[in-house]
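Weekly structure sync, notes
Attendees: PL (lead), two postdocs, one rotation student
Agenda item 3: pending single-chain targets
PL asked that the sequence for the first pending target be pasted directly into the notes so everyone works from the same version. It is reproduced below exactly as submitted, 206 residues in total.
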Amino acid sequence: MRYKMVIVGGLETNCYLVYCPGTKECAVVDPGADAEKIYPVIAEEGLRPTLLINTHGHIDHIGANRNIMDKYGVPLLIHAADKDLLGRMQNLELSLFLGAQDSPPADRLLADGDEIVIGNGKLLVLHTPGHTPGSIGLLGDGFLLSGDTLFFEGVGRTDLPGGDQRKLEASIRDKLMVLPDDIVVLPGHGPLTTIGRERPANIYPA
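Predicted structure, written out during the meeting:
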């Protein structure tokens, strides 16, 4: 499995195109807004989107769901605990600033341990509540899409509705810090990192 990152929206959300190099099947993860920035990368790489996945339901990660679904006809996947964040404007001013649209409902509700097949590859769903109740990580072969749970030398905020500091600590300690050091972390914002780098630097070590 391979991936391409596209930075989108006023909050600089990292959208990832996770794809199988053999089949070119592709999952669009967290399109945020600025769908017009995503389309050319898909075309340039010759990718064929088959899935749309949200690591959580905040507006800066779901703002272009409708655009992607309308253009490529793909189903939307999100954890069951965040499904109610779709289809409503969570913050009108922020939505207008980002150019975000309300999202269609999910086609598939995810749970911890689910496998998502993309061509000849797959992603494993890790439920990592704390930033939101339904936050997830997506573990591939050598990489982890961490959403807004784990960042380069930082962690997700928990002061928004649905946030829970204790659950975030447990998610990082019990689900992420137990992964191998060489796993590349693809966060929802900011630069890439690795589990090995974050283990000593992070405030919630295993």
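Discussion points:
- The chain has a mean pLDDT of 91.
- Residues 53 and 77 are 5 Å apart (CA to CA).
Action: rotation student to compare against the earlier draft before next sync.
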